[in-house]
Amino acid sequence: MKRSLKRSLLLRAGATGAMTTVTIAALLAPAQAGDVAKGRKIAAVKCQMCHGLDGQAKLPEAPHLSGQTEQYILTQMKAFRDKTRKNDMMSLVVPTLSDDDVADVAAYYSAIEVKIVKVPGE
Ligand code: HEC
User: Fold this and answer.
1) Measured in angstroms, how far is the CA atom of residue 35 from the centroid of ligand 1?
2) What are the domain boundaries of the chain?
3) In the structure, what pLDDT confidence band is assigned to residue 1 with cuts at 50, 70 and 90?
4) C-alpha span between 71 and 64 (Å, rounded)
5) What is the mean pLDDT of residues 43-56?
6) Is 117 exposed, middle or buried, given 0-12, 13-18 or 19+ CB atoms closer than 10 A?
7) Cα 107 to averaged position of ligand 1 atoms, centre (Å)
8) Which residue's CA lies nearest to atom 41 of ligand 1?
9) Quick one: how far is CA 29 from the chain centroid?
């Protein structure tokens, strides 16, 4: 009895979760999704010295990119390009990237899987 209730709750939560995920993904999906393999090649040449090929920052002033959403990375890259967000290092990098390059690196970094091991207080 207890077991089947838990199972049915899990199934329901799973169905709702899946639906929500699909809906949100559809809303956030960029017009043209980037190519992860191409993004990795670009990241290896243009991003890894500061953000790491694994998306873990190699400079104290650079943020981690792995674990970040594709949409957020895209938005920030666009902000650096149109100079609404300014940073000396990023300003040197963004002019070297095409629209496709930006979509590809966003797809690559957001596709890296991260695992939370410890959350303080939990
Ligand atoms: C020379 C070092 C350097 C290189 C190379 C570099 N970045 Fe950055 N990047 C930074 C720094 C430093 C920041 C933090 C900017 C700030 O403080 O506003 C940053 C910020 C960002 C952010 C914003 C992240 C956030 O959490 O808001 C994104 C996205 C990003 N970089 C993507 C890239 C990509 C993609 C590449 C390669 C195409 C790249 N960067 C290459 C140094 C670099």
Assistant:
1) 19
2) 1-30, 33-111
3) very low
4) 15
5) 98
6) exposed
7) 15
8) 47
9) 12
Query: Residue 114 in contact with residue 65, Cβ under 8 Å?
Result: no
Give residue 60's identity as a one-letter amino acid code: P
Average of per-residue pLDDT values in the chain: 85
Identify the CA nearest to 66 among candidates 56, 76, 74. Answer: 56
Q: Looking at the domain that runs over 33-111, which CATH code has it been given? A: 1.10.760.10
Compute the distance from residue 90 Cα to the ligand 1 centre, in Å: 5
Condensed to tens digits (0 to 9), the pLDDT of residues 60-110 reads: 999 999 999 999 999 999 999 999 999 999 999 999 999 999 999 999 999
Average pLDDT, integer, range 107-122: 96
Name the DSSP class of 63. Answer: P
| Short-list 66, 64, 84, 63, CA closest to 75 | 84
Question: Measuring from atom 29 of ligand 1, which residue has the nearest CA?
Answer: 73
The protein residue whose alpha carbon is closest to atom 33 in ligand 1 is 47
